[in-house]
Amino acid sequence: MKKRLVIAIILIFTAAVMLAGCEDAGHAGYNSRIGHQLAMELMTDNPDAVILDVRELHEFNTGHIPDAVSLPLGEIADAVESIIPDKGQMILVYCRSGVRSIEAAAMLAEMGYYNVFDFGGIIDWPGEVVVPSH
What we know:
alpha/beta; Oxidized Rhodanese, domain 1; 5 helices
């Protein structure tokens, strides 16, 4: 119960900052990165959340977080609205080290997505990773 309350408070705070038009670091609607533990909890508590891997497809194919959707950073502007039409959909973004995920989350926020959480890179991911068999 206490964990869910903390998550709810974080989500409410994040939404309030985004709705207030926060332009922190020049990116409207995007304010910070969440930790891996909170990302895991959000994935568990929100099974409809989109886990968005913004690495290149060949990187995704070497291993990815279960149920992740591959959408390379360079393709976000052209393809995200067909993949995620609901601007309120919870989106959990990651890449390899956390650099591209910051940029991707900011891009999504600028495009009007308001429930976006960047949780950094898969290189530090403590959870399960799916490695496709070739």
